[in-house]
Amino acid sequence: MAKYQNLLVAIDPNQDDQPALRRAVYLVKRNGGRIKAFLPIYDFSYEMTTLLSPDERTAMRQGVISQRAAWINEQCRFYLDEGVPIEIKVVWHNRPFEAIIQEVLTGQHDLLLKMAHQHDRLESVIFTPTDWHLLRKCPCPVWMVKDQPWPEGGKALVAVNLASEEPYHDPLNLKLVQETVELAENVNQTEVHLVGAYPVTPINIAIELPDFDPSVYNDAIRGQHLIAMKALRQKFCIKEEFTHVEKGLPEEVIPDLAEHLQAGVVVLGTLGRTGISAAFIGNTAEHVIDHLKCDLLVIKPENFNCPIEADEDDEHDDED
């Protein structure tokens, strides 16, 4: 059975066109499964209306929820008429990323799809957008959908870490390739490519050590990466011409190769780093996303601990 069967689509409240919903329907038609179209909404003005009683405020919220649910139903009408199984859910919640992750947890969703927005680099460090919260904290894979159709013969490009300085890289690499191969087999036999980036020679070393030979260093690093890539591709019977070991930073190598291959999706692993280190160092996924012209699928390691808890009390108003 295909892996992704219980899809959650985060609806964009600001536009009628829903690329993430289109991509989810594309997957379900080829992969099977079902879709939940989900929208968290909140309007602070309704909470500030002191002239209304709590019951009246609740009724106003329910009215807004019903309107938005009807609007989503209109966006889904064509797919529903085709027989695509889509459930619609709108909740009142003042933190969209928390509402989405709570829905992932309570609904046991195995894939989240959301439209990707371009973010200003400086602003995104100071004000972390919902997208970045989801990339860091969502326990299931997150598919960030760019507003473009799936390219004809589009390929899946898996970015792997071949440096192996840390013990978690190898199992995460295996998980990335395994899930992508399984997905590709169920979506028009999509071609799977692997890419690994290795660093350039540090300039300060070359300056401080007169006998240091940058070309020998580069050859040694590239050789290590080629050996690691060969071992990885052989585990999944991937052809050598579908593997790429390139010199440079991942945020430069990956988008360039994705454009060259006309990839439909780039698959990345992320450890979900948060706090100061994430703000100033950044995650590879977050550096890459704004440079991609195709979709991005971000997958967490097996032992990932989600910092958000399921909303077991179901205290937020909702309508299906």
Polypeptide structure, described:
With 320 residues, the chain is α/β, with parallel strands linked by helices. β6, α7 and β7 (192-198) form a beta-alpha-beta unit. It is built from 12 helices and 11 strands. 43% of the residues lie in helices and 19% in strands. It folds into 2 domains: 1-146, Rossmann fold (3-Layer(aba) Sandwich); 149-306, Rossmann fold (3-Layer(aba) Sandwich), CATH 3.40.50.12370. The protein has an 11-stranded mixed beta sheet, sandwiched between helices. It starts with 5 loop residues before the first strand and ends with a strand. The longest helix has 28 residues, at 54-81. Mean pLDDT is 83; it is low at 123-127 and 276-281. The chain is elongated.
SSE topology:
Layout: E1 6-10, H1 19-31, E2 34-41, H2 44-47, H3 54-81, E3 86-92, H4 96-106, E4 111-115, H5 121-126, H6 130-137, E5 142-145, E6 155-159, H7 169-186, E7 192-198, H8 203-208, H9 214-235, E8 243-247, H10 250-261, E9 263-269, H11 276-280, H12 284-289, E10 295-299, E11 318-319
Parallel strand pairs: 1-2, 1-4, 2-3, 4-5, 6-7, 6-9, 7-8, 9-10
Antiparallel strand pairs: 3-11, 5-10
Helix pairs in contact: 4-6
